[in-house]
Amino acid sequence: MQPRPDPTLVDRFASTSPSGADDAAATLVGAVKRYGSGQAAVVALDDVTISFPAARFTAVMGPSGSGKSTMMHCAAGLDRLSAGRAFVGDIDLSSLDDRRLTLMRRERIGFVFQAFNLVPTLTAVENIRLPSTLSGRQPDTSVFDQVVSMLRLADRLHHRPNELSGGQQQRVAVARALVTRPQVVFADEPTGNLDTRTGQEILGFLRSAVDEHRQSIVMVTHDPNAAVWADHVVFVVDGRVHEVVDRPSADSVLGVVKRLGR
Fold this sequence. Notes:
- By secondary structure, the protein is of the alpha/beta class.
- It has one domain: 3-Layer(aba) Sandwich (Rossmann fold).
- The protein has helices at 7-13, 68-75, 98-108, 124-128, 130-135, 141-150, 166-178, 196-213, 224-227, 250-260, and strands spanning 24-35, 42-53, 57-61, 83-88, 91-92, 109-113, 184-188, 217-220, 232-237, 240-246.
- A six-stranded mixed sheet has the order 6-7-8-3-9-10, with helices on both faces. Strands 2-1-4-5 form a four-stranded antiparallel sheet.
């Protein structure tokens, strides 16, 4: 069972737990996301209800334009739903104004993006500590050292992004997402800009964060070889959950991809 949130955060964020999702890291209930209006409206999410389990690695796959990235962005509070509700743990994101939503994302969510999103003028250690710096808190030294060691960054901490390889930059981005021990980490195509070997290393680090530190990972990917690192794979088609594969293998993932025919 996932630990309950700090009561001070519950009060600040006016949380309301979704039924049946007590051990979920994040949940969507009747989620609808439309872009535009009238006949030009595009429905990116069409009445989606799904929970992402705590202390598990979930991969989200689907054809281009299927709504998989929209699903992640709405679940993470990066985008607002048109209808329905999104929860991070017990916190109902629809109940938060922009200031409290920003605060919640900073304190309870980690992000890893394909483009790394590092601040070019900051060193690796400054980028890793940035969420803590913005919140005015000191990162836990033991957790910081543990994450830096796991990601093999100890000798690169004082280098700026332009002095790091693509793989090293992504490891810094992963460290930044993990070091505050957020309730859930969302990763959007985290290996998309990396060579195969480096991508496998990043996936191994994410897998270790789940297995060794009980962190919760939700990763959007188009790559079946990346998806097999997950505990289960959610397939999204036309804005709806099409299928969920538990304990995925290369064959089971490729089988669904072939059935989708895209």
